[in-house]
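User: Hello, can you help with two protein structures?

Assistant: Certainly.
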Amino acid sequence: MSEYDITLPCMNGFTLHAKGQNLIVATKRGEEIFPISKIQSFALKEPRGLSQGTVTFRTAQAATAGVSLGFGFGASIGAEKNFFYQKRDLGAALALRDYVTSYEERQRSADDTAAGAKVVSVVEEIRGLKGLLDDGILTQEEFDAKKRQLLGL
């Protein structure tokens, strides 16, 4: 089993990996890590005929270089990344696209699950306090104050 969730071999010595919350661009010299939450756009072009497919993504990172076009106009270089892959790797490319584009949905789902667990724990805590009230360990005022605190009232 690979240490990465998805691996897409690309041309010119690049490999794209998806792992956890990161998209990793690996070369023989090292790797560059991009948090998926910072990727502003992700596009996949499937290979057609003899042409290769492309993966393009734009990050929220500052550009690494700029080009002056004259008259006060310029263009940034480095915020958009382009990679080319072969037709045989289309399955991995599609899996990578789905992984990156569904990231926010997976995060929302995880946040909703955590929020649901918090509600359950608050309810359980109030029930425990009610037991202490019934046993005479807490006064009604103490119970009410703690209940308001737990419910954020």
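That covers the first. Now for the second protein you mentioned:
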Amino acid sequence: MIEKVLFDFLKTHNIKYELFRHNPVFTSEENYICLDENGQEKELVIPGTQYKNLFLKDKKNNIFYLVTVPGEKRVDLKALSLALGSSHFSFASAQELYEFLKIQPGSVTPFALMFDTNKKVNFILDQDFVVNPPVNFHPLRNDMTIGMAPQDFLTCMQKIGYEPKIIYIPVK
């Protein structure tokens, strides 16, 4: 019930959101499926932009990054590492993900930065962030999605203690 920490935080700070419950999803390409009033599966359409989050590591310098982009974008990791002045990116391990953000693979979300109390993770946000509001992220688990206005999301990140570095994320 780790998500309770997030929901309590949002309530405490009067941050508005809409909650959508659905089947667990592990990639941004998957459809969101929920049950209708008759218990039948149906596709859930969530308004706005669905985001994917990459938890990356610069192995040479032992620096971690959470990179957030619209779900349809294919990130060019080599070009991104050059843009950020890093040597080479790889995906961080599940152990590192849990160590820093207290979540499991498939549930990566900027909201987990609330657990990075030592501010070891660099938060990088794609410049196309506000193209199609609302913005949608998992609330620390992958069977729910939170939708909110972009400004409410940025306010949430500020209250957590993170100001994202907003840049052009190179794509393939």
